[in-house]
Amino acid sequence: MSNYHIKNLEEYFQIYRKSVQNPEAFWEEIAEEHFVWRKRWNSVLSWDFSKPEVKWFEGGQLNITENCIDRHLTTRGDKTALLFEPNDPAESAQHITYMELYRQVNKMANVLKAQGVKKGDRVCIYLPMIPELSYAVLACARIGAVHSVVFAGFSATALATRINDCDAAIVLTADGSFRGSKSIDLKGIVDKALEECPQVTSVLVAQRTSSNIDMKAERDHFMAPLLEAASDECAAEVMDAEDPLFILYTSGSTGKPKGMVHSCAGYMIYAAYTFKNIFQYQEEDVYWCTADIGWITGHSYIVYGPLANGATTLMFEGVPSYPDFGRFWEIVEKHKVNQFYTAPTAIRALAKENISFVEKYDLSSLKVLGTVGEPINEEAWHWYNNNIGKKESPIVDTWWQTETGGIMISPIPYSTPTKPTFATLPFIGIQPALMDEKGEEIKENQVDGRLCIKFPWPSMARTIWGDHERYRQTYFSAYENSYFTGDGASRDAVGYYRITGRVDDVIIVSGHNLGTAPIEDAINEHQGVAESAIVGYPHDIKGNALFGYVILKDEAAKRNPDEMRVEINRLISDKIGPIAKLDIITFVPGLPKTRSGKIMRRILRKIAQKDVSNLGDTSTLLNPEVVASIRDIVGV
Ligand code: WTA
Rounded to 5, what percent of the chain is helix, strand, coil? Predict the structure, then answer.
């Protein structure tokens, strides 16, 4: 039995037991036998959740790109590493071999060096899903620069905030991006963002749409000629195990995004090990994750996890609805995809369309189906299982977070019996706990609680960039000696976990985490707005949709309400991005508040969900009468 590759349920239980009884010996063996190091570590793990401080493989040295690329060259040099499928199906797919990836990454690394980028510097990457995005990420890792990928759907303001938070002096972008029938002016967004980022001295621009863009002299350079001229050899920087590999921003319950910092060694080991087992990847397989590399799912399961295993990883530029709703399945047939990993929101959207979009294609190559990002409802699970997997490909419902770096709770396909809506069992090395209201761990089964993790795992985020205290506060202060996930969960009679959703002020819309605070901040910037509160309500495709309660100032209240709605959504789109636009905007005379002035979101949530059967005691509110007027306006 190899501890690296779990083949059945019995092995899972055995390996799991080892991994929690003696975590250090367990992870040491995985690290030693399956990765290449420049120098061996002195200690496997040291940790203290009260600080919090977690270190894995301290003293060890390595470079993740040597693990993801160089070591495969002798045996897999001609194997496709990246399989790029363009937005337009008429454009040919690109098969980028490990050898070609090696060259391109080294070229990009040399270009970055020539721009003055050094180990430890932050590089902001704002690129669409084109091969240059993968090259850029890996090139940073090659030279020890810390990449901060910002999803190319974020607005100029959101981009500027992220560039400034980590003080990046260089931005990698493209002229534009293709998204279905649309193209988006990325360079224009970058130009606007950089008006607020005086420290940025260099912008490298990939050409994708060949659109007309402004190039600022000295600052802006096209990537292609620089890459062309650069050497395709670049020695990998030797990194300490705990050096930061990347920063990735996630929404929090206050306005500022949290720059989660991931380490080199622990992240690599856990991303690789989970990938191997949760997708049961075999040497000839073609694996496809539909996420964008701008999210953690893309970092861990398009780039690092697959490449560390020498896999062929498909990267798709487009959207599931272009040129029609059969695109995903067309790609599965065309490239004979074996593992397919997507989000419940995509499944729900496609399930709404005519089944002929699925039936046209041969999906018999599929062996494993995955979901991630939000709870999958039973109906969507069955649709996926029946129509895509034909009841033969197990579904792995994978629960994890930007903060966890890798999948934490998931079935192992062909080993763990699946159960719709349950993420099932903790992955190897993961020690979950459910906590009650008083902060005590609930040991029994068939209970609900708040989901925590009691023991460190290699790929946990080490800090929030520039704000360690916020990291402690957010994740380690609610429960003693435990990492708090922010999610609620239940555990069934056999110990399977079901994630029920966020218990904080984060709302997951179409798989994207959105904090209510930044959206409210954006709305409140409107001159006509006095105050606002955002809550989520169930939506049959997006999972959750956003409901905004807005108090207008007197002058604005006289204006056309639909115009006000358009302006408010435009403002949100500008400040955050179109993904954060509100589905419903209701103008109200006041918001229910506690005597200490806190908005009672629970009540607003119930009203938005049109479930007022159990509003609880409203008499303790500062302004109980406002509840009745809001109900009147909403009509519940
Ligand atoms: C939610 C995405 C239910 C959860 C990798 C978590 C899920 C948040 C699942 C993290 C799942 C993710 N079932 N809920 N399988 N996977 N979530 O940081 O609320 O974008 O806390 O990472 O998504 O979202 P993030």
Answer: 35, 25, 40
CA of 399 to the centre of ligand 1 (A): 6
Per residue in 523-546, pLDDT tens?
999 999 999 999 999 999 999 999
Does any ligand 1 atom lie closer than 6 A to the CB of residue 375? Answer: yes
What does the DSSP 8-state code read for residue 593? B
Query: Which two three-digit tokens encode residue 125?
Result: 């990457």
Single-letter residue type at 304: Y
Cα–Cα nearest to 588, from 608, 612, 617 = 608
Non-local CB neighbours of 261 within 8 Å, separated by 6+ positions:
244, 246, 247, 461, 462, 463, 464, 465
| Cα–Cα nearest to 68, from 44, 41, 42, 34 | 34
What is the percent of the chain where pLDDT is above 90?
Answer: 94
Nearest ligand 1 atom to alpha carbon 506 = 19
Pairing of strands 220-222, 202-206: parallel
Tell me the per-residue pLDDT of 415-469, one tens digit each, with 9 for 90 and over: 999 999 999 999 999 999 999 989 999 999 999 999 999 999 999 999 999 999 9
**Predicted pLDDT of residue 615:** 84
Tokens of 47: 């940790």
Q: Maximum distance among all alpha carbons in the chain?
A: 74
> Quick check: pTM over 0.70?
yes
CATH class of the 506-634 domain in this structure? alpha beta
**Alpha-carbon distance 96 to 80, whole Å?**
5
Specify the residue with its C-alpha closest to ligand 1, atom 24. 401
Average pLDDT, the chain: 96
Check pocket membership of 489 for ligand 1, CB cut-off 6 A: no
**Of the candidates 512, 523, 581, 574, the residue with the CA atom closest to the CA atom of residue 189:** 574
Helix (H) or strand (E) holding 524: helix 516-524
Is the beta carbon of 298 within 6 A of some atom in ligand 1? Answer: no
d(CA 435, CA 450): 5
Q: Calculate the dihedral angle through the C-alpha atoms of 605, 548, 260, 161, rounding to the nearest 10 degrees.
A: -170
Closest by CA to 320, choosing from 367, 282, 288, is 288
Q: How far apart are CA 79 and CA 66, in angstroms?
A: 16
pLDDT of 87: 98
The Cα 316–Cα 291 span in angstroms is 9
Contact 246, 270 (CB under 8 A): no
Taking only the tens place, the pLDDT of each residue in 567-605 is: 999 999 999 999 999 999 999 999 999 877 788 888 999
